Each structure stands twice: as structure tokens, then as C-alpha cells.
Amino acid sequence: MKNPTFLWEDRDILLEYKSIDVSKAQRISLLNVPIDNVSHDEAMAKLFSFLEKKDKVRLVMFIDPIKFIKIRNKKKYQPFMESDLILAESENLQWGAKKLGKELKQRIHKISFLMDVFRLAQKADFTIYLLGSKIENVEKIYTNLTRNLPGIRIVGKQSGNFDKEWETKIKESIKKTSPDIILIGMNFPKQEIWIRQNLQIFTYKDKVKIGNKTIEKLKHSVVIGVDEAFDILSGKKRIPEFFQKHGKEWIWRIIKHPYRLDWIFCAIQYYFLIWWNSFLIHRKNRK
Question: Maximum CA pair distance of the chain?
Fold first, then answer.
């Protein structure tokens, strides 16, 4: 896949997403780690339903083999499994599911997913808040989006590198702007920890007119952890086409950072666990 461009097809995506029945969408358990078994369009349809209902804060997380092992092994990370939408962004998770006799319909490419999120926000007039990466990268994404998607409402843009004082200002900004969609790119597990430590700032009071009466209702954001996506969208970070095409960005990160022994260990452990459990399943079936 080439570097992301801000070009979109002329599709009625609102009608498309509304026509998809997500009530029967299932979540599989892969070695006790839950993953939503959805296609790209089904994932977008679920996101759209979250945004229309606004019934509670909704959390969306992408998962690869490194995250898979860390979440599975560390008790402090296991609350991440309670995310409302857990999307497999790596073909290696599809492979692992197949080896264990299960199915994942599709690996969800994070950049393509985000491009559709931007299109959805523009079409349905949802507001977006960008938090993460360096400010120059976020500014470039903002410029590209507002140039190519006229009318898109980005109500906030902040760097993910902040001190305590600036963090307080960011929280106040989020509360004040009441965004429908918050994209947070701080890398794993920092972004997931920060999101869960600050759930209260993603709920707002909103005035809604019903007939001749105006009442106050609670409005809730959809919060999406996007990891390094801002760096990629801004063009700051380039990942070879092969690794993007096959959902192996996590392997590229290991190649680029061979000193991250914990990542290497997670990769080895992932493949060992899949092969070992596959062996146990086949042995059991022979009996």
C-alpha cells in the first residue's frame, strides 16, 4: 500500500453502514483474548451505531501479536479486554485463529479504517479531537483533512507529549469541545492506560430539543486508540509496502528497534503458543 492520500470515493457510506446488521456480530476468544470477528465494513457499522446511540463511552482498540501477548500475560493490562471493539490489525492473528480452528473474517487495516472514520465524520457531522504524536504531525493531518474534506469538524488537536500542567489543559479542552470521536495516539500501553484513567472526561451534558421542550441528556464520546497512525498519516513515518499490505507493521517495528527485547520475546511467545495449542488440539482430535 502506498503512503496514505486523502482521496475518497463518492459513496453513500451512511446508507451503507446503516444497512449492515451488526446485531449478530460475534467476538471470538483466542487463547482467552477477545477479538471482534468483523469485516472492515462491519467494524465501521458498529462504530456508526456507537456514535448514533451515544449511550455510554465506547472504547475501540487495535490488537497485534505483541499487544496480544502483553494483554494476555499481564494482569494490569487485562482490563483492556473490556474494550467495546477489539480489532485485529495483523494477518498473523488471522493465521493464529485458523491454526486453532477458529475464524477471523478480516484483518482491519488501521489507516484505511481511520480514513473511513474521517469520511464518516464529515458526512454525518461528527466532531473529532486529535491527541497524540508531535504537534507538527497533528497539524499536518489537520491541514490535509480540512483541505480534502470540506466541512469536517476537528474541534481539537494536541500533541501526545505533555507535562502535568498541559495535561490539565488538554482535559479541560476535551470537556469544553465535547467531541464525538477522540483519536488518541500515544503507543501501547500508554494510550490505553491514559484513556481508562480519564474516562470521566469523555462524558458531557448536551441540550436536546424534543418537541417544544429542551432537556439535558448525557452525551458520550467514542475513543479510539490509534498508536503510531498519526506519524504514518502525516508522512513522518514510512513503513514498507509489504509490511503494510500484510498487516505486519509490528514486525517492522521489531526490525527497526532490535534492542526492544520485550517485543522480540512477545513475538516468539506468540508463535510458540499458537503452535503448541494447535498441536494439543490435533492430538486431542486423533483420539
Answer: 70
